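Here is one chain, start to finish.
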Amino acid sequence: MGDNFTLDLPDEAATLQFAAALAGAMRAKLNIYLHGDLGAGKTTLVRGLLHALGHVGKVKSPTYSLMEAYEVNANNHFKFNLYHFDLYRFNDDEEWESAGFRDYFNAENVCVIEWPEKAQNLLPRPDLDITFDIKMLGGSLGRRITVTAHTILGKQCLQAISIEK
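Its structure:
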């Protein structure tokens, strides 16, 4: 596998299966940026990711709060905090600074950001970009994702993802 791959996700179950595969490859310090239109499956992926990492309970979209925090204990092997950002309604660089969001991007955390383009000048370089495109797949509406690694950590994560393509 190179620095990127494309995968068809014909339904929600396939998205959750990919999320579980990604969860199995995650390590602290990972920054994952999610791109795609409204309804493309970004929040579904995050929900599947958190549940695969052992989070029990509701995973709500941080559309209004901008960020939700989760402590996960991945397979009882390692703990980290996962910060789920949704920057769809983000408008002001000052808001980013005053909320202290910059501090969440460190070696102990994983940050998953929906709509990163809204704060592109404030965010560090992503380890992984995941782009969702809504497509007709086999006669029904599905998603095609492209996963691209930009760093050594991102490439290690890509290599560790175990999925049937």
